Amino acid sequence: MIYHEDMPESLIRFAVLGMLKLRPMTGYEIKQTYQKGPANFMLVGFGQIYPVLAKLRREKLARPDRQRGARESVRHFITHKGEEALREWLFSPADPSNHRELLLRLFFAAPPELAGLRRHVEAFRREEQARLGHYDETRKWLGEARAQDPRLPIWKLVLEYGVSQSESRVRWAEQALAFMTNRKKGQKS
After folding, report:
1. Helices (H) and strands (E) in the chain, counts
2. Which of 21, 26, 67, 82 is the most exposed place for a label (fewest CB within 10 A)?
3. Measured between alpha carbons, how far is 130 from 20 in angstroms, rounded to an integer?
4. Which run of H or E residues covers position 62?
5. Would you say 53 and 86 are in contact if contact means Cβ atoms under 8 Å apart?
6. Residue 88 buriedness (CB in 10 A; 0-12 / 13-18 / 19+)
7. Tens of pLDDT, residues 28-74
8. How many CA atoms lie within 13 A of 115 on its CB side?
9. What are the angstrom distances between the C-alpha of 76 and each of 16, 19, 53, 86, 109?
10. How much is the CA Rg of the chain, to the nearest whole Å?
């Protein structure tokens, strides 16, 4: 499922850097490759890529290839400075409720870097568990304060959507943490 909310420019910047970390690409290739991965949870518009690429070049985080490709396309490479900026972002503090940014960080993390993102996944799981507690309180309040309201079944139905989402996110976080733990154990052998 593609989410159609606007992605902040700061995240577009790291999405483009992350794509260039995978391999050198043209703006068109970035868009095409991104569509097959991160766009499933965080959309970037085609018109957003080229201005970000230009800004990354000005900041020396990416550089164009000296040779032009077909149709005068320019392939871009991530610079050492760009790799440092991407790595700094990967491990910087994050909003635990922003699951899309968490997924983007995980998507671009190299396998040895996963352990550094464990605290992000743990914070995300705690946030969703707290949200489940809030839903329980809301469910109790609805039963006590609104027991006679004819809209109560509808409100409970809507509430259950949130519960289902949070339960699913907690399960996913637990899977991600187990994966990280098993991966770490496998590396020690």
Report:
1. 7, 2
2. 67
3. 37
4. strand 62-64
5. no
6. exposed
7. 999 999 999 998 888 888 888 999 999 999 999 999 987 765 666 89
8. 8
9. 10, 10, 8, 15, 20
10. 21
Burial of 42 (0-12, 13-18, 19+ CB in 10 A): buried
User: pLDDT tens across 171-188, in order?
Assistant: 999 999 999 998 767 666
What is the C-alpha separation between 176 and 50, in angstroms, rounded?
A: 33
Q: Phi and psi for 76 in degrees, rounded to 5? A: -115, 145
Terminal-to-terminal C-alpha distance of the chain = 38
Judge whether 44 and 7 are in contact, CB under 8 Å.
Answer: yes
pTM of the predicted model, to two decimals?
A: 0.86
User: Which pLDDT does position 51 carry in this prediction?
Assistant: 94
In order, the DSSP letters of 67-105 are S--GGG---EEE-HHHHHHHHHHHHS---TT-HHHHHHH
